[in-house]
Amino acid sequence: MSTTVVKPFSTSLSTRRGNNKPRVIQLEDKHHYLRSTSSLKAREDPVGCTFATQHTIKASDTPITNPNKRTFPTPSTSESDGLDYILNKFSQTALPNPNISTSSHSICRKVLKFIAKPNRETEYAQFFSVGQVEYDELEHFIEETSQINLKPRLTYIAEDNTLLVEMPSALHEAPFAALHSDFSDFFKCIPYNEWAITINIQNNIRISRGIIPDQRISFHNVLNRKQSSTIVMSGESAFSQDDFSLFEKLTKTVQANPYLLLIIAALLEEEFPFHSPEKSSPAWQELLSRPFLETSDDFIALMQDESPPALDVPVVVFGHTWCSLGSVEFKVWVRGDDQPIDIKTNDDNLTAEGTIYPEEDMDVAVAMIERGARAMQQRLITFARDIEPDIDIDLLQDPAITFQVNLEQMVKKLVSVMTETTYERYSAWYNSASKGVEEYMSLFVYCMELGAVDGDASQVIYTESPIISEILGAIFVHCIQ
Hints:
Blueprint: E1 2-6, E2 9-16, E3 23-28, E4 34-35, E5 49-51, E6 55-59, H1 78-94, H2 102-116, E7 124-127, H3 132-144, E8 153-157, E9 162-166, H4 170-188, E10 197-202, E11 215-221, E12 230-239, H5 243-256, E13 262-269, H6 282-288, H7 296-300, E14 315-317, E15 320-323, E16 327-334, E17 351-357, H8 363-387, H9 393-396, H10 407-450, E18 452-453, E19 459-462, H11 466-480
Parallel strand pairs: 12-13
Antiparallel strand pairs: 1-4, 1-6, 2-3, 2-5, 3-19, 7-9, 8-9, 10-11, 11-12, 13-16, 14-15, 16-17, 18-19
């Protein structure tokens, strides 16, 4: 039995027919296609479809006399199998519920398809006509199933039957990762009784039914669970998300929490909206011709631009833009003396806007955030006095206690997570794209096994067979797309 090894190669397939002759498939490559005991002359590759896998093909000593009766491999469907499993599981759970109609069930499946999609090019989607029953069913299923690794952030607007779904990236989370440090440093300077009070600065924690902000700050009485906690701040990050849905979410947040003192919204836009590499593009060919890059450093090393990392330096690898920033803006609201925050207000005493990029202009916005921080400090004093009436509040309101937004640190975080977001996107794309290549390569290998290799391994001769024609047609279409 002879063995032929196919190395990573680029494939062009050409066929020619004789009147009663077997079909001949001719294989060509820039360097080599088939390696056996005989060598091949290098040939040009007019198609340029690169397969990044290696297969060992054994030519059987016993010819296949009836290939029509032999089964052949079909593309593996690991991703689709996983999605099918999730959808089937949800159907088993939801369909017995008489309150969920067929059309509502279909909408729920669309939501799950977006959440479970491995190579997602957007992190935000909006779904309409989602009733309360459907939302409750979806929320319960997503929380309980172990098949969805990255859990989404769901926001449900019951008045409009609208469901907002976010799959946050590292870039999405960056602004409030920086603000988390700023608020933490501020509260550490206030000498409150930590045995009686805990201050939680948490990300992606429910603030009310159907609302999960990017960040919230709350005070809790450790000594008495019956005394309700108080939520004083909510933060939202919108990455390439429309303003209307964001402000609708913030309005619902205030309605559920009328005593909020501070709301911060960070709005990020990409300069070039992300999309995966086009099939057969330079990035597609170059990256799939390589093994998977295990670290972000390995991937970033492929950048040709030697400029220092900065917000205005997009991540471009093999001519494809993987991450870019067009703008980073902030909008801030504070509570008035006797009324809840008004998201629609234009009062300069209650709201402010600022920009970090492309131009840094954050003075007014930072001043408004500091005003909100001072309001939280006063609320903390009131909260402490309710627990310990005789407490000395002079120490808690010491004017030497300062609050500072570290804009330099925020910029550094944004720059660093551009790399993380890039690698997240590359990993998701590679896992999806390489599986497709491997699937069709397995079909190619099967075709090779059906035939016999001649002396110099330059031609593979196949008998006429509908199965082979079908397989080769699939491979050829895949290569030219």
